[in-house]
Amino acid sequence: MTEHYIQLRLIFSHVHEEEEIEITMGVLATHLCCTMRNMNLIMNKFLDNGWVRWSPQRGRGKKSILVFCLPLHDVAGEWFERLLHHNKIEEAYVLAASLPFHIRENVMHRLQGQFGLRSDHGARGRVDTLRIPQETSFETLDPTQAVVWGDVGIVAEVYDRLVRYNAEYHVCEPGLAMAWESNAEGTEWTFYLHKGVLFHHGRVLEAEDVQFTFERILSSEHNPCKALFGSIQRVETFDDLTVRFVLNAPNFMFPDLMSSINASILPRDVEINPLHPIGTGPYRLVRNDPNILVLEVFSSYFQGRAFIDRVEIWQLPQAGRGESVIRQELFPDGKPHAVQHEVQGGVFMTFNMRKRGPHLDISFRRAIRELMHPQVMADALNRSSIQPTSSLVRKYDRGNQQDEEMYLFDAEKHLREEKMAQQKWTEVNENVGVSADVDTDTGVDEPSLVSASAWLKRSHYAGEMVNVWVEEGVNMEHDMVWFAKRCEQIGLHVNIVSGDVVKAIYHDELQAYDLIYTGEVFDDHVMRSLITMYTFQNTLFLSVMDDHWRHELERECGQIVAMQEPEDRMESLLQLEDRLIQEALLLPVYSFREEHSYHPSLRDYRVMGYGMPDLRRLWVKRSPNASEESSSYSAYIPLW
Questions:
Q1: Pick from 103, 100, 83, 101: which is nearest to 92 by CA?
Q2: What is the phi-psi region of residue 584: left when phi exceeds 0, alpha when psi lies from -120 to 50, beta otherwise?
Q3: Are 599 and 331 in contact (CB under 8 A)?
Q4: Among 35-49, 264-278, 385-399, 566-580, where is mean pLDDT lowest?
């Protein structure tokens, strides 16, 4: 009965409580898709509960009077809570999605406590379920296409790679391959597979599956991974457990590339379904629809069964900013444990080099670089979770002795860069006619604005509107409000539009925009992530580069992977980034950190590079006081 009342109130959402409506019983029955008899029964229930007043009128052509007494807000909230109480979270989601925005946001507060981990005892024994909310829909789980971190997080659990990267020790370890070797030139790499590895559909992994996986990539001109694995000339199998890659050029980083999500191994005997994949990973996908994606543990996993039995990822109905709603008062029974996750990568501005416009002029791009001055922005926004940066690579990791040496090296390099930057600042100001005093044309005296104004005057900008695309999100949209005010101060006209990163990447919705404000999140293998950013066609950065820069980046990365020493490769990648920054094609602004909060009973909680807890290691220590039937353990995982 409650559902019927909510349905009618949504149909007549423009009608206020205590406002009279002239209507017939027949029209109401049509709205509820029921018979006249059932409509009379429903109306009597409404009257008994005091939800409506009904004044029937007799006679042909006469309409009765209906008055709603109970506010939609009250009845929807009560019904939403009842559904949650009975663990009907999917029905609660459907209800929330149907409500007007202002009511939806309010009822979503009742979701507190629904996410995290729930441990239940039933006929099958103990079942541990991790529920995670998110606001970005899944577009593809094809590992050769996936680039959004929501998609990548699922791919990481469903599939395996030949090699796994150990972020703690910074080494490649066996994955599907138990060992590998190469010739001295780095042009042939042979991998030896584990025996008895099962795909989720029950067949044993064979070398031909590895061959199929990479031939699928190489045979398609349009596969975005093709440049990433472009050094592969052919793939050979010698028996069921041995596969050799013959390369057209030396590649001493080949095992690292084989640990990439994009190198996940697919079964050759099943047609690829990009939203219902089959892999060999610790979890198999059992459901994927617009409301929920469900992973269940794969008990036959070759590296041992994961502890968490089921992972549910729920699509939050749009309700303002659902993340803050979920986080509020999530831990009423005590202080949670927290993990500070320093996100590798960062936020940056880039330019659509595939579109004509003033941004093709380097002087214009340098004006934008001054407008997006990282330190000035950080000071203005005063946001504790961000750190202004001149690079997408965090350079000061002191995790071990090797990192300490790298830190000292980078600190010296940083000092050199600072001196060079100061010298270059003076030269640039002299070249473009900037003085240290107030720019009398603009009336601004902040140095970066003065420099931006001078660069803009030097460019071919003629007062036209410049379209800026910004990735959806409160913080980044606030960044662009600040940026727009800066543009106004120097006479630059911008039109800022926020957009869905999924649509931008997979549906090519950036064609109309000149400037792109987004971010790149690296996984734990930073060096490989940089190579991916510069060669994988689905990254936002590469998607807006013209053919010249795409070919140049692919060429540079080909030379870098041919270097034998990792230190040389990283130094060359940093030099390549410096070149992009000097060309004002890549403007790093800030790096940021996320905080995961979780119940102390969740053990071995470690955050992976893509922002998800490592489900292969996570386990639950139930409280001795927990009820025998069920127990809940809250967890706050930042939304993708």
A1: 83
A2: left
A3: yes
A4: 385-399
